[in-house]
Amino acid sequence: MADIFDTELIRSTFRLATPLILAALGGVLSERSGVVNIALEGMMLAGAFFGMLGSYLTGSPWVGVALGMAAGGVFGFIHAALTHRMRLNHIVSGVALNILALGLTTYLLRHIFREAGSSPPVTGLPDWDVGILAKLPLVGQSLSGQNPLFYLSIALILGLNVLLFTTPAGLRIRAAGEHPEAAETVGIRVGLVRYLAVTGSGVLGGLAGVYLSLGQLNMFTEGMSAGRGFIALAAVIFGKWTPFGAAGAALFFAFFDALQMRLQGQTIGGLTIPSEFMLMLPYLLTIIALAGVVGRASAPAALGRQEE
Amino acid sequence: MRISQIVGTAGVPVAALGAAFGAAAIVVLVSGGSPMESFAAMFSSAFGSGTAVGETLVKSIPLMLTGLAVALGLRAGLFNIGAEGQLLVGALAAAWVGFALDLPAVIHIPLCLAAGVAGGALWAFLPGLLKAKRGVHEVITTIMLNHVAFYLTHFLVTTRLKDVHTMAPQTPEMHATARLGWLIEAGGLHWGILVAALCVVAFAFLMARSVIGFELKAVGFSPDAARTAGINVSGMIVLAMVLSGALAGAAGAVEVMGVHHKFYDQFSPGYGFDSIAVALLGNNTAVGTALAAVLFGALRNGALGMQLATDTPKEIVTLIQAIVIVFAGMRFLKNRVPGTRGSRDPGLRADTQGRADAANP
Amino acid sequence: MDVTPAVEMRQITKGFPGVLANDRIDFSANWGEMHALIGENGAGKTTLMNILYGLHRPDAGETLLSGRAVKALGPRHAIACGIGMVHQHFMLVPAFSALENVILGAEPVRFGQTDYRRAEERVRAICERFGLQVDLHAKVADLSVSAQQKVEILKALYREARILILDEPTSVLTPQECDSLFAMLREMARSGMCIILITHKLREVMANSDRVTVLRQGRAIAGLETNSTTAEELARLMVGERELVRPPEEREASPAGPPLLAVINLSVPGDRGLRAVDSISFQVHAGEILGVAGVDGNGQRELAEALVGLRRAAGNVEFEGRNILRMSVRRRLDAGIAYVPEDSGRYGLVSSYSVEENAILGAHRGSPFARWGILDRHAARRHALNLIERVGVRAAETRMPARFLSGGNRQKLVLGRALYRKPKLLVASQPTRGLDVGAAQDVHLGLLEACARGGGILLISYDLDEIFSLADRVMVMFQGRIAGMVGRAEADRETIGALMLGARS
Questions:
Q1: Residue C270, pLDDT score
Q2: Which is more confidently placed, A200 or B34?
Q3: Is A7 domain-assigned?
């Protein structure tokens, strides 16, 4: 039983965490500026589809990455426009975008590929061998040989942290999320800040989705985000809206997901745990984690509030 | 209601539908199809014959119930995105009572319905409790429970509750005494329509005339003012979620009792998700939701026929749904988002007062 | 000194739905001067200054700064032109430090990152120059109201404002804090700045300003040198030809009835874990008005919420002999305790509900408005009509959503609704804030009536005038404790002011 806690487990934890981290960082960015982003799920799905499409059309996964990011960004932009310009309730907008993403990707899948369920296989992203990292103790073996998006996500954790907490731009983003009226009175254009932040969060969400199709399966399947966008949002909350916290929470959720996969079919104390219960685990865990978060005092104060 | 009020109220849904169909038409055009042909095929498939109308109504029954479920939640300021999971649990519970027990119809039918209601209510209870006591956003918890419900029912229907006589993942057939018979044979319109209609009436009455409805709406509009008036806001939140889940569970029960007569894996084409559009389009009212449910029933029913006739994929309906949600949601919940609390510190609170106060600087 | 006016506004007109806030107003203020802009609540003062600061665009008229015409396209432009504004409701981010709030939007940058060290140097220099003392690294949420105000002033000075507008700056300060604020402002005026004070407190105007402009109902009525006028004349100009409202007659000290409410060692937690109310004890008698004075933020709100049931508390509270701390809000309402919260127009009413529905809110559960769980709409309508007539709320239709009522009418509705139930104890917080003189008088009359009927009132107010005119006894709160309990006869501004700042009696 103890032998499941090995390098392979850590390796798959990192692998499973990558899309969650990317999406969660997007969530942090958006919510820090005051916009609830329930649409991460849709942004991921769109990114996954268009990432696959980019690779399919050109043979290069990197084009797929660019296209997936753009698709996510478009969804982000729409979310920003709906919530800011049209004053639409943030949740309603998010729900609509999720449904739109699901419908659109399924529709295009059938229309372009004349196939239901999944796309043909495409060229995915290569794994990188990062020699230096491999030398690190304990996790070194698992850190090397990962997808480039994994390394990007680590860089982004640091980058977003620097942005939010040491730069003027970050101060203004946070002001927009804490007290937009105060920000307006000192001349900050809260609308512009939110457009940029939410579009950015869409790009990150799209990137997370690209990882799903080009980093793991090398194809797109219907609805492949499978609720991960919501788990990422839970990671944002659990991580108290900071980049490191959200990434840590994402790793936490991913670990249990990796664990669940390893335990499938295993017996514990003579009982075989049905695979369905293992599959349920990430979702149940999310609920438990959220229930345990003491108060929501750490949320940006103006999060989700509509202006009159 | 006065005429002007009716027109005013109908204005947004009509505009929403107009925009949605317009956008759908563009998508169809761009993919090389003909919007006129596609929509005509859809319409005739949905309403073209007595059978078609019956089928449309049958499809609208679960939408009506889940639509009411979502609408009730929204009235209380809650986003119940978990109707799908609540529907599954309710359906399985009803199916189980339907095949496991053998009772006279007069008891069996209400018992099955009750099981469905209880299942759905139970499934919505936890999100309600977490929201009330710990401020956990119900959108995430209900969606998580959707996934859990999916796996749980799948598990049960392939093991414990599985029909041993077949390979298919389904429960044994429900006894005849547990089934809802046909009201009209054409299209298979079953007595579930009566259940749905009763719920519509009950919903309307609850909202308009009862103390519970009064308090529930107050909580949805202004939880602070409600609390000051002595309303038990936490209790109301839990009650609203439970009632909402109960309606969704009833939808599942009615569906297995009237159409399938058993629970089989993935029997629901996503009623729970359609319900959001239905509720918003119906502006969270009883009658509006009922009408919207019929409309979406028609869309779903007609979409398959449209796909067969014109090659336009039925997912176009999902596109229509998304746009409807955006437009119909526009004038709704402008002042309040569940789960957030504005700062109450008077020394620091921003001056976001209403229009009347802008005139009194 | 430059003789061109620092600010000149000509024929400024601005309308909002339903009201003309500024009607062809001419206004000018000079460099090196303290200029008071006065008028009643609703006269248009804040709107005019918001236009100057670029928060509103005027429908007509022009603005000149030092003789040059400008179109203030927004706060950014106004700041660039050297105008700073300290709003009535502070525009500070609670989660940020004082320093962050000061530099927000104008951050010094080094290698792409915010240069906090340079920022601090600059801000400290300004503090020294004008004698401001603020803990720059404290989170604004933890600062006192007067400290927050200093941060707001620093924001303007940091951006090199030469024209400083302050909107009702003294409504939240103790008398002593007011004095130090004015000393600072006078120093700024001496250094050449133009200070514009929006206020309705004539005493301050007479003591501190060089010139006064009077607004009434959106029009500029007069512009005077302060030393050429008197408070009485200004008051007359403010309210117009209407009979000057006489201050209410001295209340006879009514014989205190039996104790209605006995609070013993009550402690109430604040929003962030600290104790907002720290083991206090006091009583309220039938027929008495107990005024609670103190600077906003010293536990008054938490006290009110604890008494009414909206906040958990420890200790003992006895109402008519029964311990009510375990009772829900609803049971306390039924027992005869009524609550008119601060900003009641917002927190006491459901804006989307009709006037009718709001009228029965709180009493909607039982007869006469509901039976067997079902509402009686007709009874509700009758009650609403009755209510709005009695409180003098003008509402065309009781089925109209409450959000369309004016702020003053909303407050009157909430109070009327509370008084209708003939409460034994009424907890009222800031009941006349934002109301004009006439409406405030109506409210006061309502309160006095309730007293005459034998009810007891706990009146929380940051307006000392209100407390002095109504209260039988004054309880001063400071940092969650009772700094002093003073009878009507001994209560005067200096004593109360000192208690509000923490001097123990």
A1: 85
A2: A200
A3: no
